[in-house]
Automatic annotation (TrEMBL):
Record's keyword annotation contains Cell cycle: yes
EC number of this enzyme: 1.3.1.98
A GO CC annotation given for this chain: cytosol
GO molecular function, one term: FAD binding
Name of the protein described by the UniProt record: UDP-N-acetylenolpyruvoylglucosamine reductase
Localisation: Cytoplasm
């Protein structure tokens, strides 16, 4: 543990006592309902507070982790040391003409709904993506043929030194399910999306169709991290897993979904270790059967329980 009263006092001076939680259970903040405790779980309300917390972590040599809304993430059972920063309070979405500015903690689903309300086209693909705006930029989220790089104009970030930067979309090196945000240690604070004028009924029809496809095919009745694996060139991950006879395969409380083989669900109070073990089992089985190594799309962070 990196808990000490001095660090706690500093954090509440930078934010407030309501925004700093000690030994917070992270399974309350992840879609998988997995994860141990964070030494400090901090929810700043302003960009300046984010900058100051980053600078505090640097000065105090404290471990520092950014946690979005935990939709594409597995936190290990031992939790996370130091400061875990969550930007859920930075969640405003504003529209100006054909441009939408959404803060990092806003849900990308809500951003697509804002676009619909203003008859703006381009974000329909995001109507079923459960992540935050910051997380969507982090991994260049996409679905049904669309992705963030198609509509992103610019972003405001905090760098590793606590500086505020405005970057164009081109500066993020957005590729299939990746960006340079993690490599550069950027913390996304807001994103500006450039959209096109459209017709409400046509935009809504597309979103309704995509929502139906998602709800009919994905195992939304159980906690999960969404699609576990990236699509391997020339294949579909779910089809390879299904053809390997792995649908329904269970380790502890974690199960390869019987509804969609590309998903692993927390069916019966799984631990993160069980979930991760099942990911490895799927990877090894598919590799042995088809010679294809499935690459994880989901990110794994934190410490094992025995550390």
């Amino acid at each position: 543990m990196v808990n000490d009263h001095h660090t706690y006092e500093k954090l509440i001076q930078l934010t407030s006592a309501e925004n700093v939680m000690v030994n917070e259970h992270l399974n309350n903040h992840t879609y998988t309902h997995l994860g141990g405790k964070a030494d400090y779980f901090v929810t700043p309300e302003t960009y300046e507070q984010v900058q100051n917390i980053v600078k505090l972590a640097i000065k105090g040599q404290l471990p520092f982790t950014l946690l979005g809304n935990g939709s594409n993430l597995i936190v290990k059972d031992g939790g996370i040391r130091g400061i875990v920063l969550n930007l859920k309070q930075l969640s405003s979405i504003t529209t100006n003409g054909s441009t939408i500015v959404a803060q990092s903690g806003a849900r990308i689903i809500d951003t697509s709904r804002e676009a619909l309300a203003h008859e703006l086209a381009g974000l329909e693909f995001a109507c079923g993506i459960p992540g935050s705006v910051g997380g969507a930029l982090f991994m260049n989220a996409g679905a049904y043929g669309g992705e963030i790089k198609d509509v992103l104009e610019s972003t405001v970030v905090v760098d590793r030194e606590g500086n505020l930067l405005t970057l164009s979309a081109d500066e993020l090196d957005l590729k299939y399910r990746s960006s340079n945000i993690p490599d550069n240690g950027y913390i996304v604070l807001e994103a500006t999306f450039s959209l096109k004028n459209g017709k409400y009924d046509e935009i809504k029809a597309i979103m309704d169709d995509l929502t139906f496809k998602r709800e009919s095919k994905q195992p939304l009745e159980y906690p999960s991290c969404g699609s576990v694996f990236k699509r391997p060139p020339g294949y579909f991950a779910g089809k390879l897993i299904q053809d390997s006879g792995l649908q329904g395969k269970q380790i502890g409380g974690a199960q390869v979904s019987e509804k969609h083989a590309g998903f692993i669900v927390n069916k019966e109070n799984a631990t993160a270790a069980e979930y991760i073990d099942l990911i490895h089992y799927v990877q090894d089985t598919v590799k042995n059967k088809f010679g294809v190594r499935l690459e994880r799309e989901v990110k794994i962070i934190g410490e094992d329980l025995n550390k």
